[in-house]
Specification:
Distance between the termini: 61 Å
Strand content: 35-45%
Shape: globular
């Protein structure tokens, strides 16, 4: 740690000596212990070490950034020179601003040290439990790991953050097989602070696996109709939440003026039951984002609160370019407020519609219009799940969906980073064969 701090100070001193008006650097190192399972069998165990240095500086209001993966003095000093050269070849932009208030803080998050034996035990146990409880499931790939991470951030305005963190991550890719029948693949992920419980009891992994098992005999829908669609957390993120962040509230769409919400601060953009926030300090988050790329300490913030647009997902640079307020963090650790009905109760209220677990489609338009295939999905008829469906298209418009929310579940999927419910939307176009 002391060497990393010393290296950061040397980088800043060299940048100032070469004419930079401002400089910041992040010096980090990590150690990852990883187990791989392919085709249901252990295939790899390895330990990976990584060193990383990112240097950002301003010279004549021109920004230069360089990233390297070595700590030796010659490489680092050459990187400073490269960053200076990158700045000198750029265009001046007065919107580049960074944290100015001096601060010195140390943080510790998650599981900084790895219990390798327990990680292997939980990995083996998870694989065996899935084989026993869900015999039709083929684990196409499972990657389990622990990553320990140490980072030093310094800038020339006397801002210093030192972070030590770690977490266990389980990433599963699987499908169901029975004879010549098989399903589309599905992925489940969870990040954990401890390995005190069997992994199959954490998050929504077992529920997701059990749904995939039910998709071996899908039907093909006929015709087209408009009806309610329940989006499971993954599909909710893929269709709705990522569109809100990327098309309506993020840096790029706000700077280029394509956001349809650019002038809607404080206005109702969604059903009053819908709230969407970014909460690095929520108790469910394993490893918190402690500071932004521009050196500001993070804080929770509401993007949409009770249906009203409360903020934008803007960096300091984008805030300066647009005249808006900088967001409290970089848009991580997403939480959507839950409702008051169970998923089963929501399904019970639908005469005909879909439960969509995954979505495959192109990037939604700037307006939020989208169209694509509902993957790993089920037909709902007369208040019950009836059949899995194949090759079914869904289309709609995200802003219209947000004001046509039917129900939000009190069931919530927590993966160690995000916490998302199921949401049912009315008026989605569903197209079969």
């Amino acid at each position: 740690m002391d060497r990393m701090k010393e290296l950061a100070r040397e980088i800043l001193a060299e940048a100032k000596a070469k004419g930079a008006e401002y400089a910041q650097c992040t010096v980090s190192e990590s150690e990852k212990k990883e187990f791989n399972v392919d085709g249901g069998r252990f295939s790899l165990m390895r330990t990976l070490f990584n060193h990383n240095v990112t240097i950002t500086l301003l010279k004549g209001m021109r920004k230069g950034t360089v990233t390297i993966n070595k700590f030796d003095n010659e490489t680092v000093m050459n990187a400073v020179s490269d960053a200076i050269a990158a700045a000198e070849s750029g265009q001046p932009d007065e919107a580049w601003k960074f944290a100015k208030e001096p601060v010195e803080k140390d943080f510790t998050d998650g599981a900084a040290e790895c219990d390798t034996d327990k990680l292997f035990m939980r990995t083996k146990e998870l694989l065996e439990s899935i084989k026993e409880k869900h015999p039709t499931i083929l684990m196409e790939q499972m990657i389990t790991d622990h990553t320990g991470y140490t980072e030093v951030y310094l800038n020339t305005n006397d801002v210093q953050y030192v972070s030590k963190s770690g977490a266990y991550t389980f990433s599963l890719m699987y499908s169901a097989h029975e004879g010549e029948k098989n399903t589309s693949f599905y992925g489940s992920d969870i990040t954990l602070k401890t390995l005190d419980k069997p992994v199959l009891e954490c998050g929504t992994i077992e529920w997701e696996i059990s749904q995939i098992e039910k998709q071996l005999d899908p039907i093909t829908l006929e015709g087209k109709f408009s009806g309610p669609v329940i989006l499971a957390p993954m599909a909710l993120y893929e269709i709705v939440l990522s569109t809100i962040m990327g098309n309506f509230t993020g840096d790029a769409c706000m700077i280029d003026g394509t956001s349809i919400w650019k002038d809607k601060m404080g206005e109702q953009v969604a059903d009053p039951r819908f709230s969407m926030s970014f909460e690095p300090y929520n108790d469910d988050v394993v490893v918190r984002e402690r500071h932004t790329a521009e050196g500001y300490e993070t804080e929770n913030f509401d993007l949409i609160k009770e249906g009203k647009l409360n903020s934008f997902c803007l960096s300091q640079y984008a805030a300066n370019k647009t005249g808006k307020k900088r967001a409290g963090n970089s848009g991580r650790n997403l939480h959507v407020a839950v409702g008051d009905k169970t998923l089963d109760e929501i399904i019970g209220s639908i005469d005909k519609g879909l439960l969509v677990m995954r979505f495959s489609g192109g990037q939604p338009a700037a307006s939020g219009e989208f169209s694509g295939v509902a993957k790993n999905s089920f037909l709902i008829e007369n208040g019950k799940i009836s059949n899995a469906v194949s090759e079914t298209m869904i289309s709609g418009c995200v802003p219209e969906m947000l004001v046509n929310i039917r129900e939000i579940s009190k069931d919530v999927a927590k993966d160690g980073s995000n916490a998302l419910p199921f949401i049912a939307f009315d008026g989605i176009t569903i197209s079969g064969k």
